[in-house]
Structure formats: C-alpha cells, structure tokens
# Entry
Amino acid sequence: MSNLGITVTEHIMLQQKYIPKATGAFTRLLRELVLSGKLISREVNKAGLVDILGFTGETNVQGEEVQKLDDYANDTMIKRMSRTGQLCVMASEEVDGPIPVSEKYPRGAYVMIFDPLDGSSNIDANVSIGTIFSIHRRVTTGDHGTIDDILQPGAKQVAAGYVLYSSSTMLVYTTGQGVHGFTLDPTVGEFLLSHENIRIPEKGGIYSVNEGNYHYWDDRVKSYVDYLKTPDKNTKRPYSSRYIGSLVADFHRNLLSGGIFMYPADLKSGKPKGKLRLMCECAPLAFVCEQAGGYASDGKRNILDIEPTSLHQRVPLYIGSRSDVLMAEKFLEG
Ligand code: AHG
Ligand code: MN
Ligand code: MN
# Structure
C-alpha cells in the first residue's frame, strides 16, 4: 500500500516499535504535540485578520484577552503538554527557569524543551515562522523533574523536530529513525506524510547567514563566507545567498535543497558570542540534521556533544550539508 495519506499519528505509532524502551507514553506525548502545532497554526493563520476583524484592544469580542502570538504559542505548549502526564519538567525559550508540571497532573518520564515561536519578529511581514521541540528521557528520580533533566547533551535526545508555519504548515520530526515530514491538510485537519525519510544533499549550493554582521565576525568566518562567494566551476561556487531570518524556515529550505545555515559568533557585544540557543534551537535541529545525513557544529565540535551549562546558553551554529559544515570547521581551525 502506498504511504500517501498516512497521518502523523499513525506514523508515530508505527515508529514506536523501533524505539528502545518506548511505551505508549511517548506516542501520547507526540500526539499532543501534533495538536499543539495545529492550534498554533490556526492562530498564526488568522493573525493577519486581527485588525480587519477589529481585535485592536486588549480584549476580543468574546471578552478574551488578545495574546501576542509568542505568548499564545508558549501557553499552548505548556498547558497541553503538561496535561499529557508524560513530562516531569519543561523548558521554553520564553521562560527563565525550568517549568514545573502542574500538581494537578501526574509526572512522567520525559522532558520537553521548546522554542514556541521561532522567527517571531517576522510575523508582521507574513514571513514563515516555526515551533521547535526537543524531547529527552528524564534522568532524576524525584517527584518533579529538575534542571538536571533539562541540561542534557543533544546526543541524548529521544525525539526532536519542528512545525513550520508557511504557505503550508509542515511538521518534521525524528525519533532517531530518519526524518519525516508531514503537511497539514487544512480541509481534514490532519498532517499527512509528504516527505518520507528526508536526506539532505551531501553538499549544497546555498549559504544562509546574516551578512550584515560581517564586520563583527572573526577573520576566519569572513574567509569562509568569502570562499563561498568566490567563483570556481569545480566546486560549484559561488553559492547562492538565501536568508529568511527565521531559523526553522532557513533550516528547512537547506534540509531539502542542501546548503549551510550559519549564525557565527560575533563581536556585537564586545565579546565573541553566538546568538542562537543551544537547548531549544541548535540541539533539536542538529538531531534532525544528523538524522537526515547532515551535520551541525559550533565551528569546532558537534553541537550534539556539547554538555550544556545553562538553560539559555547561546552557541555559534553551522548546520546543513555535511561537506559544507566540515569545510566551515576547516576554515575556522585557521
Ligand atoms: P526567536 O524569534 O525565537 O527569538 O529567534 C530568532 C532567531 C532565529 O529564528 C533567526 O535565525 C535569528 O534569530 C535571526 O537573527 P538576526 O535577525 O540577527 O539575523
Ligand atoms: Mn528562536
Ligand atoms: Mn522564539
């Protein structure tokens, strides 16, 4: 039978048999995540109508507070995921410390870290945005999970992925058995398998970086970007430049077509510093990328091997086609 028409929920259930130690708990968790993605997608899609429909004040016609999409996405994830009873603690880009699971619900064996709305500065211009998630198994044994459950290296993730809100809404996930993409069919409200077993090309022809920061970069970063722009038939240079400014969307394009996304350390603050967050942005996408045959590095080492020291730790990121990221590492050795 063709796989066309298989829903993400069916797919998750089929995948579960390949996951060591997985129980129905894990499936339950991913199903709730799928529903959260649909709810956020609905709000994102109607965002442009808010002014037209007159939701200009603090409350809408139903007397509910009109929330910023960031807050809506964050609250939706926290509320829905808590209720599964499968998590012991959560962490979000929007919240300073660990987010406990409400006493109302049982605690479970998993930990979830997320960026509820990535690229949210692009919302007003109708540009693609996304939700990124990372799931670990808990390592502590108390009633509630702790920061120790959150601060695990990316290599320990049991699942990761993202929902991309764009011309279509897509969900892309891995449980360590390849990367699979689903497109939301709004007429039936289901994510249907559209991209089975995604493989990123070994080498690409696109580089994605905020080149406005060029003068704040280390000379080695400048040399690598200069190299990508220097014509050479044998290595198919120059690369094309593509930069949306939403990590999920930039990453997704390069995952399908090949290429490298980078957010190098820069000297904007005086000290060399990356912008993107290890736990809720870099590590989950690194897991997806590696599962698709690509590679993610902080310029020196595999992102998945970094032992996190704090929840909102930022790191430089080079992610995409394996040979492009290895070449970036070579330049950075310098
Ligand atoms: P967020 O909206 O979750 O804060 O993340 C924004 C990030 C990321 O999506 C994007 O790759 C990067 O910021 C863009 O940064 P610049 O505007 O500095 O290029
Ligand atoms: Mn983000
Ligand atoms: Mn965000």
About this structure: The chain has a mean pLDDT of 93. The domain at 8-195 is CATH 3.30.540.10 (Fructose-1,6-Bisphosphatase; Chain A, domain 1).
